[in-house]
């Protein structure tokens, strides 16, 4: 899976520290590491409940509005985009749309206009239950639902939040909304494989059983304490070694547009977990070919501050062959009968070669197929690698004090403007 010129790195200097962190993580009871072993536990009852709820939503709704931000949004959206068709509605004709990630008045107004005359269900997702963006969106959407469905609105609103605390939990209890739980020992950006991510994915038609099977296989494989045998840890060590060599940016790149939102999920995972105490690689992302024609110049020839992680799935279900054209005015007949996916894969190889020659270190992450199983595997791989990587850096992977600062400042300004109004 992990492909890099390993001869450039002195792995032996990392073996002891990696093992120490591994045992700390496995043994700790007071860390929010519920996600570490969750895929190995029997969660069948939860999956059945999610599937039944998803079926009901698909039967009765034209649209599911999912409200959430950060970890309560990115994972579901990432997997949905990666595994469902590019165009048209999702499974059984349902649309799964998202709000609560921005405070654009235009966005939420147009979203409500767009669902008029459609049958709507809502899934509001917030671990803390008090994040401003989704809370505001929920206020608006909730009123819309009550106007449309009266008392029956309560049957169409499903809350995913903490099992005991938070304002959203209180609202859900008092209004009789159905509830799914984000376990208290799983933090927001590690919650994609809980109901927070799984319910919207299931509604969109993602095979959550195979997704979780992939995560389970990864959980078993990456339980290995030895760096030599654990690819998640090797990726973490590579990133750390490159950071120590002066590279300050990691560019996650792929050649399949379906993965664009997956990049965003990765960005939050690594950005919030590592970017603290004036340390950390800046996690950035590029979508090729698009960005080869935008930022490709900088990657090849610009400041030598970045390395690249190329994410590639060998098999993608849909494909199309380049047609033969007797006129050959564009001179492309030499590609006739080659498929787009083949050409895309060759373009990836060419990019890796070019960037390596430009002295940009290139790590290649290769998976067999873009399907639920391998996406589940990859999600777990990144969460495990990220945790190791943060501890190698000497920071706590599970907090985000900087984000809290922004929230406080915004609240102060909003309160001030209330007083001066
Ligand atoms: O699920 P919540 O509590 O609304 O939080 C949403 C997101 O906000 C953050 O707290 C900060 O961005 C993330 O860590 C989290 O995923």
TrEMBL record:
<keyword id="KW-0413">Isomerase</keyword>
<comment type="function">
    <text>Catalyzes the reversible isomerization of glucose-6-phosphate to fructose-6-phosphate.</text>
</comment>
<keyword id="KW-0312">Gluconeogenesis</keyword>
<dbReference type="InterPro" id="IPR046348">
    <property type="entry name" value="SIS_dom_sf"/>
</dbReference>
<dbReference type="InterPro" id="IPR035482">
    <property type="entry name" value="SIS_PGI_2"/>
</dbReference>
<comment type="pathway">
    <text>Carbohydrate biosynthesis; gluconeogenesis.</text>
</comment>
<dbReference type="InterPro" id="IPR018189">
    <property type="entry name" value="Phosphoglucose_isomerase_CS"/>
</dbReference>
<comment type="pathway">
    <text>Carbohydrate degradation; glycolysis; D-glyceraldehyde 3-phosphate and glycerone phosphate from D-glucose: step 2/4.</text>
</comment>
<protein>
    <recommendedName>
        <fullName>Glucose-6-phosphate isomerase</fullName>
        <ecNumber>5.3.1.9</ecNumber>
    </recommendedName>
</protein>
<dbReference type="InterPro" id="IPR035476">
    <property type="entry name" value="SIS_PGI_1"/>
</dbReference>
<feature type="active site" description="Proton donor">
    <location>
        <position position="272"/>
    </location>
</feature>
<feature type="active site">
    <location>
        <position position="407"/>
    </location>
</feature>
<dbReference type="Pfam" id="PF00342">
    <property type="entry name" value="PGI"/>
</dbReference>
<comment type="similarity">
    <text>Belongs to the GPI family.</text>
</comment>
<dbReference type="InterPro" id="IPR001672">
    <property type="entry name" value="G6P_Isomerase"/>
</dbReference>
<keyword id="KW-0324">Glycolysis</keyword>
<keyword id="KW-0963">Cytoplasm</keyword>
